[in-house]
Structure formats: structure tokens, C-alpha cells
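Morning!

As promised:
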Amino acid sequence: MADEPVKASNDRPVYRDPPNWILQHPKYLDFMRLDVSDIAQVHAAFLVYMDLTEVRQWECVSSFACPNIGAVLLQGHRKEGEAAQVVLPLPAHRTLSHREVRCVLDRGAPMLLCAVASDSTLVYQRFSSGLVTPDPPVDIQDQGRRQQRKRRIPP
Amino acid sequence: MSDGVTHIHLTGDSESVDQVDDGDCVTSTVDVAYISDENPLLAGISMCGSTPLLWRVADLKMARQAGVIGSLVGSLSRQPRQNTRLGRPLELLDEEARLLAEDGKVMVLPIRDEEKEEDYSERVEHYRQDLEQRHKVQSSLALQDKKGVLQRVMTDTQNEGSVRERLEALDRDFSLPVSAMTVQLCTARAGLGYHSDERDFLSASWPVQQDEQSQTRFLVYRDLRRRGFCLTSAGKFGGDYLVYPGDPLCFHAHFIALCVAMNTTTPLCDILAMARLGSNVKKTVVLCSPCATREKLNKEEEEKEEREVKKQEDEVVYTSLQWSGMI
């Protein structure tokens, strides 16, 4: 349902609502210039960029290429003053190896993987180096013999 | 603790029954006897097909002390028809058996099939004679018992005549039916402690699986053991190991370990599914990969310009996945 092109004075068509706004977005063009062969990944990176900057209001989000993985990575700060974090955007159909994860983790900054589904749903997953002990459960209560009582067969 | 906790009551060599404590507390667990250096006995692993099993109580104690947990899969002689509390044998993971063998604590026992036919029938004959002997002894004891009862009755009642008749009938016709005989089963077997000197001509060939995944799992298992963790199988959670900071009877597991080679690719949805599961059960999912080509720098002291020699070592790399729904 594109609008009819309106001829401008220099005869080039100007669409009132450009349908391919992503492809023409300056940031997207920046990403393309990083020379990553996987277009789907670049598209995913752009969606994540928009989410980080517009929705989550991250500060100073920059992009760079990681040739080992063949991907565009993003780096930014969740809040001003917080340490920088690296985000690896990937289309959901892609596979990932431990080596690729270490490639990103070994840069030193905390890492987030973002899986981008075909409907543009974003799922973030944090990766940390080493063995990170989980948080203890909040509400532990000794059930005593209650569990055993529950299992008795009713007469 | 989860439902699958087994209560192990470890006693000495004369143990015949696993007594089960019905109370809330767990019976003796990690408090095993200290095996001194003067005791060079090795534990014997019996192979059932490709599955390593430990049968003797002393062997189970040794394994537990070495931090190898295993899993009890046998039936308790006095509580047979239930699955909540199981007894010996202790089934070991391939990695557990291999680590114990590497540390020189166990050896594989040769398969019993090599016993000759004559030896076997001799053992059967010996056992039969033993049973007959016991039957005779028990028979005479039972007869004495019955006579004693009748004699007591005789002195009490006035019916002496008929009682005396019954006594005489007993003497003639009494026989203890075989089905009423008490049979003692000895659960301790002598002669299974193998001195290390006998190791050479007794050990069977070790059935080591050589594929890459087994090797990966073993390297991860060994490294985590060296860091002091106890590991059990994590089939319930779709992982390779459950990692406990100490004995499983004292702690909840902290991690679900997934052993993957560095270059193995996994679909993203699988990674996310495992991470989600981990967060639901309050355990961290950890990707573990042996990194054989990791290089360590060593310095030679000879020359003034230190020459750096690169050394290759087997190291395991760990990456934790924590759920980050809100970032």
C-alpha cells in the first residue's frame, strides 16, 4: 500500500512514508559498511540496536564487527556510569558454538546474547565466564512431615 | 533434597542388611572409615556388560570418600518391593570408574564366566550338602521344641494317656518340612580384596569408549572433581552432570553441566531452553568445554633473554548462563 510517488522538482520520486526505512537508516548503513556477509545478522543487529537505544534507553551504543563469528556486535552502557556490556545479536535460526561465545567473552566485558525471532521478538541471555553460583531460593521453609502425610493413601 | 535421595547405611564387612531409618534424618553418610596408607587394597569393579558396578561395602566407602557418588540400583534384602530406598550394587558412570582407575584405586575384576564346569558343580554339591546338614540340625531342634511343649502339657492336664501317645507318634513320624527350614544368606563375601601385587594377573582389559563425546565428558568430570565438586548424572534436567559443592546428601546442586566440544554448534533455541530450565529449578547452566589447544607460557632460565616455550595443557573452560529476562 505504498503511496503514489510524488515527483519532486528534480524529478526523483520521493515517497511520503518510505517503506524501506530500515534499509535507508543511517545506522543500518553503518552496519552494512562493517562488511559482515550475513545480511540476516545485520538486520538482527539493527533491531537490537533500536531496542537498546529507543526502548531500553542505553547510553553510548556503538557497533563493531567480529570477523571470527561473522557478526556485528554492539557495545553500550545500560545506565550512565555502569560498565560497558557487549551484545551479540543473532537471528534465532542460527547455531552457536562455545568457541564463538568465548570469542566475545574473552574481550573482558559482560556479554548478552540476543536471539531475534522472525517476528522480531527479542530474547536476551546473559553469558558469564566461570562458574557463577545461583542465587539461593528466597522462601525456604522446612516442610517437616507434611510431605509424607500428603502421600498416604486415603482409606 | 529431591525424591531420589537414597539412604546408605555403611557398616563393616559383616554387614548383612541395610537398615533403614524411618525418621527424618539421614543415617550415616559421609562419615566413612579412613583408609590408611598402609592399606593398599584396591576396590574391584564388576562389569555388567559395559556398566561398572561396585558390590562390596568397603569399596562403596572408598568411592564415597574419593568423592565419587554413583547411584544405588539394587534391591534391599529386607525391603524388596519398593524403589524409594535402594541397595547395592552401586552403579558408576563411565567417567567415575575411569577416574578411580586413573587414581589407582580400583581395578576391573575378570568376568566370572571363566569358571570351569567341574568347579561349578563342585560348588553346587558343596552347597547342597551344607543345606542338608543344616536341615538335620534344625530338624532335631524342632523336634526337641515340640516334645518340650507336649511334656509341659502332660504335667498340667490329666489327659496323660493321649498326650503320651502323641509324644510317641512324634518320635516316630516327625520331620521338618524343607520349606519350613531357615536359610541364612551371607551378604558379605570373603576374598574380594585384591592386593596391588595381584593386580597384574587379575585385571581385565578396561573397556574404554574412545569417541570424542566420552572423552569430553571425562575431561570435564575430572576437572570438576579436582575443584572439589561432587557430580551425579543430570538426566532429569537434560544435562550431563549435576554439580554439588559437596556431598549430595548435604547440599542442593548449584550447576547443571553441559559437556560440549569447543567447536560443536548448538541451535540457539536449545541454548535458551536449557537456560530457561536452569532458572526454573534455581541452578546455573554451565557450558563446559575442554580446551586442548590452550597454550601456557613457560620460561626457560638458561639465557638472559628469556625464551618463552609454549606448553599445551588440557584445560576446561566454563561459561555460565543466567536468565536475564529483565535487563
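The first strand of chain A starts at residue 6 and ends at 7.

Hope this helps with the figure draft.
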